[in-house]
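F.,

This is the one I mentioned.
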């Protein structure tokens, strides 16, 4: 419920325009907090999010990764992934944006995430995301899978790709299985 008293800066102002502006701001804020057009719409409670890993747990997970990812620089991976954040989220239950949420991407089938509109090329692709596949994809998505809708030109530097992949493994719920 919208309450004018929730906005102390507005209580000091007056007039119908101020009240209308406050109401619109409040309703837009509530809309932005929802899942938007891609939300489930079921009203079902979401599964609890796993606790964030500590720096020690992240370091242990990094060392458990197969070479060359066990030697990655997670800080460089985080910085390099900044180029991807305008289109992708990586949090559990995070929203799809221009690109799908990447939490749990490793081991998932290409083009199979719920509530995301993939290109025909990706929907009909026959592969599972693993480090090697993602490395080739990140090098140049357009040549890796012609017809996909990703406009990103790629990460030409092999070290940046290694670090992004390790960063994603550490940040997106990856569980080592001997990959």
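My design for it:
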């Amino acid at each position: 419920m919208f309450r004018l008293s929730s906005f102390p800066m507005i209580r000091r102002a007056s007039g119908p325009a101020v009240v209308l502006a406050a109401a619109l701001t409040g309703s837009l804020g509530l809309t932005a907090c929802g899942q938007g057009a891609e939300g489930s719409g079921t009203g079902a409670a979401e599964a609890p999010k796993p606790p964030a890993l500590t720096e020690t747990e992240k370091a242990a997970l990094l060392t458990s990764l197969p070479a060359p990812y066990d030697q990655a620089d997670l800080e460089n991976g985080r910085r390099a992934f900044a180029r991807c954040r305008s289109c992708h989220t990586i949090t559990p239950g995070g929203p799809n944006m221009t690109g799908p949420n990447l939490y749990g991407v490793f081991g998932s089938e290409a083009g199979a995430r719920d509530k995301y509109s993939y290109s025909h090329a990706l929907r009909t692709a026959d592969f599972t995301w693993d480090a090697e596949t993602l490395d080739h994809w990140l090098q140049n998505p357009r040549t890796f899978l012609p017809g996909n809708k990703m406009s990103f030109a790629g990460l030409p530097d092999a070290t940046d790709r290694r670090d992004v992949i390790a960063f994603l493994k550490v940040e997106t719920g990856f569980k080592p299985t001997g990959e």
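The two ends are 50 Å apart (CA to CA).

Talk soon.
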